[in-house]
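Today's session is about reading a structure prediction critically. Students often jump straight to the picture, but the first step is always the sequence itself: look for stretches that repeat, for charged clusters, for runs of hydrophobic residues. Only then move on to the predicted structure, which in these notes is written as discrete structure tokens rather than atom positions. Here is the chain we will use throughout the hour.
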Amino acid sequence: MEHFFALFGLPLLASMLMLAVLGYLGIYVLKREIIFVDIAMAQSVVVGMVVGHLAFGVRLDSWAAYGCGVAAALAAAAFYAFGRRKISQIPLEAMIGISYAIGAAAVLFLVGLAPGGHIHVQSMLAGSILWVTWEDIAASVAIFGAAAAAFWLFRRPFDRLFQDYAAAAESGMNVVAWDILWYALAGVVIAWATRIAGILLIFAFLIVPAITAALFSRRSGMRLVIGWTFGLGATVLGLLFADRLDFSVGPSISLFLVAGLALAAGLRVWARPVTVGLSLAAAGVVVLLCLRSPERAVTWAGRNEPSAAAGAALPSTRPPAEPSKGDIEREIQEAGSVSELEELLAGVTDPQFRAEIACRALELDPAAGRELAQRFLEEEPPLFFRQRVLQALDALDGHQKPGSGPPP
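Below is the predicted structure for this chain, in token form.
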């Protein structure tokens, strides 16, 4: 499990933080029957971030881009709040659906104007939660904690608003202002979560645990406990599945969330001993498969290590042991030229370290680093390591002048 926590420890922590606040928001979303508000608002956030990238030249993972995304989320919040109050002929869910369609079309148009647009589309949908850092975790704690405190402080007016909107308006409550505040808080949370996890996983975290909990309880407190427990279990299994089959992290977690919802619905409808037993057995098999360590070929410089029989016949051809993890990390950081990194690359087979070497080469010498990064990409590495190098190339292009050409 050391490998798992080394690679997925921070993504797991980030997922727990997002699950805590999005699971709470999901209960309100179900109460008000605005199921697609999160994906529509996340789409608005992406539009704002891409506009900031094209208009101001900021990187999509920068705070400036996040500010542009929050501004777009606040505009969407005002649209939903005023639309619900002033245009009663159109259902709120229809407005949300229309805004999502417009946002999706705008993003597809805008990313076509940006260098490496296909990378932006992939990042928008699947996110890059695998590369979350301690700085991202600290920012998540601050942003989610402030939003959670505001939700708790204003929980009573929010409850009145969501339980009976018409009655709240007739009583003299400023429903538009409270609506804008709720959507604005949700927008701030969704904007940051989208920045690190992508639209797909955010939608799954917001909706699936809340629906699953609603199958078994009507009390809000119990729904929170069920939703958080269910979401955490699906997240851990999703990360194990991604590690086992070299799968993208965000879609993997989403897959297990939906599979868990289907299993919970089956148990709720056909709650019989046989059904429960079969379901638990199936879940146990999945857990055991995910917990098994991935079978990785033991290689050195791209060659399979000789078997025991071959080693007995040719003892002198057995390669030396590969350097330890700590030694490799130290050599990557201490390397002063791309040529040193090329020598290190020749003796390392782990795709994680090979990706780090490629990114380090791009930092030291962008021109020579491109050749090394291209060599790494031609090896067809695992998806998330390939994505990391592609993002480094894209970030490098973001600091170049227009017309310098896309990454190779």
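Discussion point for the tutorial: The CA atoms of residues 42 and 316 lie 59 Å apart.
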